[in-house]
Amino acid sequence: MRRSVWNLGASVARRISQQQEGFFPSFFRGPCLVPQRWFSDVSSLRKTALHDFHVENGGKMVPFAGWSMPIQYKDSIMDSTINCRSNGSLFDVSHMCGLSLKGKDCVPFTEKLVVGDIAGLAPGTGTLSVFTNEKGGIIDDTVVTKVKDDHIYLVINAGCREKDLEHIESHLKSFKASGGGVNWHVHDERSLLALQGPLAATVLQHLVKEDLSKVFFSDFRILDVKGVLCFVTRTGYTGEDGFEISIPSEHALDLAKAILEKGEGKVRLTGLGARDSLRLEAGLCLYGNDLEQHITPVEAGLSWTIGKRRRSEGGFLGAEVILQQVQDGPSRRRVGLISAGAPARSHSEIVDETGKVIGDVTSGGFSPCLKKNIAMGYVSSGHHKNGTKVKVSVRGKANDGVITKMPFVPTKYYRPS
Predict the structure, then answer these.
(1) DSSP line for 132-153
(2) 257 in helix, strand or coil?
(3) DSSP secondary-structure letter at 330?
(4) How far apart are CA 247 and CA 231, in angstroms?
(5) Which of helix, strand or coil describes residue 411?
(6) What sign does the CA torsion over 254, 87, 273, 192 have?
(7) pLDDT tens-digit profile of 150-209?
């Protein structure tokens, strides 16, 4: 039987008391993802506003980024993954960190930290971007939204919260000391729900007055959702159409119940296990596995996040290194893989047909939707072209593999026709 990350849910719940780093699935690993404190006493874990609701609905809770989070519910992770793509899923992602930068200089400040053309965004729109360090490496990936010209809203990864906030604060102090007008607020008073799948818009439309057919992928609105003002972004981490809804925590439970009621049993509570399989099928990166501080956005296949103006002007940390790679090409590249045999895991070696090691896997498992092994990783440039045959080493056995275009499953983002 394939013991992929998505088949580990039940055993994670059974063996949680062991709290061993090596026991957890791949999305619990990586330099950003496994501080020792994460495996402290379960009673010290933070709980979202929906924690008891998860437990009441059969959620199997595991430690993740210092939080107690559901990895799955009563249905299997395989079934949850398929249901999200055919109907819909509701994820509690309140462990992620939302924050606002406000003031007349919030846009130029943000552009010092990320590679995107934030000034070029229209108000009410956003984009994926990355925080970079002085060497061009990725500190974290983030969704940046220009709410207004004087208000930037960001969502950062839970496992990188402390280092991200320290990074932002250190640069904010020097920026303000030189006369920059920007302040910030971390939205710890809010919860974040992700409604994903083909039924997402239909279900949410029951709870809002605004015509959601006019809200496109990456658009942001402040909407009255069931009587409560929420930040609503048409985005997600599954490759499906969907919305992330930031709501004051005291109203999160009521909203979750309303969404599930309108979903009529087809939209189900879904945990982190299925979320990981969905994002891998969609070819989306996981920080700590596929992105790290020694990997540049060019190597990661994220050059598209670097706006044309930013390529010309620079002005972000590590710009010299990154823009040189844009011009000359990187020495390694992120690729997709389909392989035979046992599913590839993080750190599985990728070798060419002569036996030479050309890279390694960063994320991998069995795809519930495609019914085959998929993975992503990094290989030396020249070996990255689609269709290139390779071998993937899994538990000492070299399995046949082929470099494959991502996403593995076509994305269904809602864009203007």
Answers:
(1) E-TTS-EEEEEEEEEEETTEEE
(2) helix
(3) -
(4) 7
(5) coil
(6) negative
(7) 999 999 999 999 999 999 999 999 999 999 999 999 999 999 999 999 999 999 999 999
